[in-house]
Amino acid sequence: MNPTAVVSERPGDSGTAGRAFKKDGPVGIGASRPGFLWAAPAAVFFGLFAIVPLIMVAVLSFASWDGLSDPEFAGLANWKKLLDDPVMIKSLWLSVLLTVLGVAVQTPLSILLGVWAAGHQRNRAVLSAIYFVPMLLSIAAVSVLWRALLDPNLGVPAHATWLFGDGNLFGVQAGAIGVLVFVSTWQFTPLHTLIYQGAARAVPQVLYQAAQIDGAGRVRQFFHITLPQLRNAIITSMILMVVGGLTTFDTVLILTQGGPGSDTTISAYYMYQKAFKSFDYGSASAIALLLVLVSTLISLIVVRLSGYDRMRSTMEGL
């Protein structure tokens, strides 16, 4: 005699829906949804260190404050001043440019490396471990390292003039922007590679087996199976790149200091100059709030245009 009997009802039905019954009474067949108390610590942490500071920045963006005296309400004066500031307008375009270049360079490189690292090649684990080392270093340490290596007097360019010309990569805008893109790519590509590696390993092998039976080679498998299945990972990675690119600060501070002139003065670095050099915390707060709004808007556009918000399948790309 079977000791258990299961009563099945549709989800949402009252009474014994979703429960199994034994001789001695009902027992749950699945874990119940955690209560709010489980999320309370994270919610409190997020509120104290994200929501409250954001509200304070929003308030300060409508005030005049030098960091010492009491803040004074200034209305829209800070915002009008920023709109009339050519350096601010230029910094926004530079931020967008660096972000676009970062996405354009890091995305294909990360996908190729991630798919390769997900395979079973010989010595793959060792090579992957070595490649992921930059991800373990701080931004400041990486920036100091490359600043020394690319120094026009003592670094590599000074001994390879046939490749770098006069060796002063930081003396022209194109060279300085190229250095920023290269250093960011060197450090953050491993992070996105790790994302794609995990996503590639989750692709069902039966899809590749069916493609092999149909005569599809590796290139066709990559473009018709792997890439579509990595759609969710690509969107997640791109959003991280966009937010990271628009808020980059450490790299610019250490490598170029916004130079030459203001040719690499991105919005985050201009915010730092306004706050800690000009002691204009009202304008700096307006820049910070603007960056939050722009980052959020671009992320929502990426999600909307990609159809990510309409996906319901637990499988990648469906």
From TrEMBL:
Segments crossing the lipid bilayer: 36-63, 92-117, 129-149, 169-188, 233-255, 281-303
InterPro entries reported in the protein's UniProt record: ABC_transporter_permease, MetI-like, MetI-like_sf
Coiled-coil segments on the chain, per record: none
Location of the ABC transmembrane type-1 domain: 92-302
Keywords annotated in UniProt: Cell membrane, Membrane, Transmembrane, Transmembrane helix, Transport
Residue segments, region Disordered: 1-20
Cleaved signal peptide residues: none
SUPFAM superfamilies in alphabetical order: MetI-like
Membrane topology listed for this record: Multi-pass membrane protein
Main localization of the protein described in the UniProt heading: membrane
Subcellular location: Cell membrane
Similarity field: Belongs to the binding-protein-dependent transport system permease family.
Protein's name according to its UniProt entry: ABC transporter
